[in-house]
Specification:
The structure is a single chain. The chain is α/β, with parallel strands linked by helices. The protein has a single domain, classed as Response regulator (Rossmann fold), CATH 3.40.50.2300. Strands 2-1-3-4-5 form a 5-stranded parallel beta sheet, with helices on both faces. Strand 4, helix 4 and strand 5 form a beta-alpha-beta unit. Helix 2 packs parallel to helix 3. It is globular, with a radius of gyration of 13 Å. The model has no long low-confidence stretch (mean pLDDT 93).
Length: 132
């Protein structure tokens, strides 16, 4: 299965998403902030020895470095530019803006059912395998 990085500042949501995706057979890494996600991606600080994940599940509403900025930094970095991003937010109106400006491969609205999360992840990973 896939290696997935989940970034969300809500501990309960982070734990829930990690448990759902781990149960589905994925290897999970978590980060509770945008800056921690960038560190685990090897972007800030720069660390070429870090193996990039197959997918980033990215909460939009995080303090300091929000998901929008993290998404832009992922897209602008040569090593992470092609990593698929699944954006997650309770703010439905952000989906169109986010999809157009950060080029996310999916958008999941909170609250979500476990099957929705698993389905979105599977669809994105299938598309990325067939494109790569």
């Amino acid at each position: 299965m896939a290696h997935i990085l989940i970034a969300d500042d809500e501990p309960s949501v982070l734990k829930l998403m990690a448990a759902i995706l781990a149960k589905a057979g994925h290897t999970i890494a978590t980060s509770s902030s945008g800056s921690e996600a960038l560190k685990k991606l090897g972007i800030r600080p720069e660390d070429a020895s870090i193996e990039p994940p197959d997918l980033v599940v990215l909460d939009i509403m995080m303090p300091k470095l929000d998901g929008y900025l993290v998404g832009q930094l992922i897209r602008n970095h040569p090593r992470t530019r092609a990593i698929p991003i699944l954006a997650v937010s309770a703010l439905r109106e952000l989906s169109r803006l986010f999809t157009a400006t950060v080029e996310v491969q999916g958008f999941l609205h909170k609250p979500f059912a476990p099957d929705e999360l698993i389905g979105c992840v599977a669809k994105i990973l299938d598309r990325s395998k067939s494109a790569g």
